[in-house]
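re: ur question from yesterday

yeah so i grabbed the chain u mentioned. its 176 aa long if i counted rite. heres the sequnce exactly as i have it in my notes:
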Amino acid sequence: MSSNPDFDRWYAAKSARFLLEPSHRLETFGSTLVNYHLVSELDDHPGKVRIREGRLEAHQPLVITPHFQDAELEGFGSEAREYFEFLRRNEKNLRILQYGYHLKSDHFSEQIVTDRLSVVSERVKKEVIDSGDQFSAVIQCVDEPWDVALVELWLREISRSAKDNISELQKSGKLF
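ran it thru and got these structure tokens back, copy pasting raw so excuse formatting
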């Protein structure tokens, strides 16, 4: 890790390699458990690889409606005021999906093995594929701060699932 935590987080996020993503998206009307397998080489210990396993629990997306009627604008120009009035008139048509999650530490494990990072990564990926778990991800990432890779996984799953979740909510009449 460097002396700059912002850089470390940015580097961890951008260097995460998604070797296997869940084949199923996040559920629209229930919770989803996403199993993760993070593979990382130990800093300053070439040939030592840490495998972390656990799960993220994705809660059912919530539909949020904004409330513009009680809001007031101060110090904004006429264009911003007109746009805000447009939003106020159309707020019944505005919906936002909120995805919640939390890390489940009750199923967290970690082990250190001796081998090349690429070999361990491929072995873990093959084991997950062979298990048939459609809600698993395998990510090659930095060893610290490793949990940034989980945030990246979460963002990817939300982005991948949102369109279908919105469509299912519309069909069920729960969005509008």
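noticed a couple things. Helices lie at 5-15, 78-89, 117-131, 147-172. also The longest strand covers residues 101-114.
anyway ttyl
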